């Protein structure tokens, strides 16, 4: 073990693993933001080695376990079970091995993120473990009672007895709650109940004394694994969110076909209590999209790539401080902006674990190779231009493809890049490249980074498309290269009766490769999505130093310190 790792391990004799990790994350973030990625990686690696040492000591001193919690080496302790300690060892071992492989290529930033992700998972385990004592019922006459009136699990009960108790509880909850199909947008969520309605029901039936009491009790049920939110893990909320009752799934505990208890839960029908608790933790994360944003603060229109409601799947955004439209158009990043770009890609790939990474400017196509090197395991589709090969393959050589862009001349320097990345010649006469720089209420506004009035700009965009189709009657397809053009795609489709592809169809194409078919797919292998996008304000995922590096922040003289 490296000397620095041994020092960290020694330090953990008096601190809990969670405390040490939080401290390392805090110190490492400062190093990372100061550009000292190697030092950040070394600190995280040392902390991980120290954590491995500590968990090994836990295993050696398992006899110190007190009521299901394993004592640590010092005064502080994390309430981990043996299984959790083993899981922590697995996480840290894999993280250190993977990080060392990445670091051998001198990519210390990504190596640091590999370990950081393991740290985040461990902290989540710590948070759950620290709350475990809240779920431990107090002993009363040989039984343990939870403050939820309808939870009673005998102390030392067998797996079968626990399962039978939970069976009764699940069935009773099914009678109390209004469980059915609930629809949000175009998605129907079967066998769900609405949190806010459930609270009202529990109060009306006098099972709870108040709404606050109901929320508290429902959170107890969630901790027992009896109810769960359809997509995310969080505390039960008195809000119109969809939840499921464990009993409404295939895991429902029922009596045998004869209605007796003689054969109930025998053999394969016996569901281990631990399996019940872990059943809904094993889903894969719902596929999601990550979007790199220009350093450009504007209210996106519905249909814009920066508008969350443009998608039927989760989307996460990360602004790149200093990346202006002009810099993106030039295809050259400064050292500072390049580092910020790398950090943004890593944040989406590792912290948010998105499936596909795109960008809110078509000229980010210049940086697609750089992005692939940073997030080699993700699908990178930074520009609508990546749809060109499919479009070319789908039409005859004599057919024309109209490409609408913010500025027609801006694509000229990209011909070699398009040929290298897409395998097609951008100078092919098959392509009709037309700029929208002279379209009223659009061209000047986009060039200057001003807000575009969609209603005023739409007629000009449509008229330009119609004019080009009239001049080139062999036009069979239209591609909106600019990421601010999708709001006009439907109007252009209607006016020209031609198929239109844009930034949104680009994202949808690659995301569909990760999503289950709604008609005949294998349902249930990844988390469901409730259709509610994560709220995003430009720059909220940056630290104070990064925010102050943003052009939009400096221009508006905003102070985000402490936010």
Structural features, described:
It is a single chain. By secondary structure, the protein is an alpha/beta fold. It has 21 helices and 15 strands. The chain has helices at 3-11, 17-33, 37-60, 82-103, 108-130, 132-135, 159-176, 195-204, 211-223, 273-278, 325-330, 335-351, 368-374, 388-393, 415-422, 443-448, 454-471, 489-496, 503-512, 544-548, 551-556, and strands at 138-140, 143-145, 152-154, 180-184, 187-194, 227-229, 242-245, 289-293, 315-319, 356-359, 379-380, 400-405, 431-435, 475-480, 500-501. The strands form 4 sheets. A 4-stranded antiparallel sheet has the order 4-5-7-6. Strands 9-8-10-11 form a 4-stranded parallel sheet, sandwiched between helices. Strands 13-12-14-15 form a 4-stranded parallel sheet. Helix 18 links the parallel strand 14 (475-480) and strand 15. Helix 3 packs parallel to helix 5 and helix 4 (82-103) runs antiparallel to helix 5 (108-130). The two termini are 39 Å apart. Residues 1-14, 61-77, 131-155, 247-282 and 558-563 have low confidence and may be disordered. GO terms for molecular function: lyase activity; racemase and epimerase activity, acting on amino acids and derivatives. It holds the Pfam family DEP. It comes from Seminavis robusta. Keywords: Lyase. This is Dimethlysulfonioproprionate lyase.
